[in-house]
Amino acid sequence: MKKQMEKNVTTLEALAIVVGMIIGSGIFLKPSVVLSSAGSPLMAILAWVAGGIITLASALSIAELASAIPKTGGLYTYLEDIYGGLWGFLLGWVQTIISYPASIAAQTIAFATYANVFFPMSKMGQTILAIAVLFFLLVMNVLSTKYGGLIQTLATFGKLIPVVGIIVFGITYAGPLNFEAVDAVTVTGFGAAILGTLWAYDGWISVTNMAGELKNPKKLPQVISFGIIFVIIVYAVFNLAMFKVLPSEVVATSETPGVEAATVLFGNGGGAFITAGIMISVFGSLNGYLMTSARVPLSMGEKRMLPCAKVFGAIHPKYGTPANSLIMQSVLAVLYIMSGSFNKLTDILVFVIWIFFTMGVFGVFVMRKKFPELQGEYKVPFYPVTPIIGVVGSGYILISTVMSSPANSIIGLAITAVGIPVYYYLTKKNKA
Question: Which of 13, 29, 116, 374 is the most buried (most CB within 10 A)?
Fold first, then answer.
């Protein structure tokens, strides 16, 4: 009898995946970009809240799909069930071959880069450290999903320490609120500011990849909702604290506003404090990406929709983890680390990934109309307004991305299209 994945992911661990994969280095680095686009601190905070609302609307919509289709694989399985096998396969194809391993590679290099502040290293030394950290997390996740969940929970709490430190000491700082405008407030500027925040809210959907392993899958919609609402509050209050500590023009022009705020609050050690916090944030995000990414090739392998499907669809007989899929994602990540192509690859696929994400949000309408038998216990609140907000927000990202990077968007579509003949080949082979 084929070994199945055990339902051993707790609600707290699922929540740690949501929060831990959203809160990365962006909260420390993005405020300057958002403020510059928004024009004033008040509009910047409103942009962070607006971006959070769009993310929440999308999340609440996809949570209905997760409730109706509580399978390992996440969005890949939802698209497959709602739109047909080809659409699900194409998402799983780009996630498995490029998107997830390239993101893992980028996270490992970011960790090694920040570690260089404490332990100066050559480029080769940073590469070796990046691969070593990835290898450690690979071993932990192969040995037990519980180890990966524990690392995720500890890293999430750890990354909140510097954030909470700046919030608490910043809000109580003796200085006045610095709400001076740094530029004219315009509609297009505010839209660009919202776009900047949406990248900082990315990552939450990966928890749906592990829906089949949750001890209580019925709580997944609540986990997603609570996690995103928590992050919205953290982001808004964090920015408010920075405007209490730093002049607006400093926040707008600094490449590391979080470090600047920490230095004012905690002295020269503040920069090291924030750098350590960023390292913990990146480490937690890296673990989350590795742990959740392997569930996509696992699900595809189980359905014989990957080359070497039996290998990638297998569960380790002793540890009960998707060991082969974890190793495959790690090997691809190492190749991208060694080639240095990971940032370019992630940039190329942004447009493609958001096409599938938009399809997922719109999938609520499709599922309710065409597949009423798939209805789960959870229903998106304020239907149809909530999914409409999610679709509009996702559509805005698509338009902005194709306008700012038309060449990357076309290349991304071409890479995705390579999966079409692969899909039909595997489908024909499975029928035979």
Answer: 13
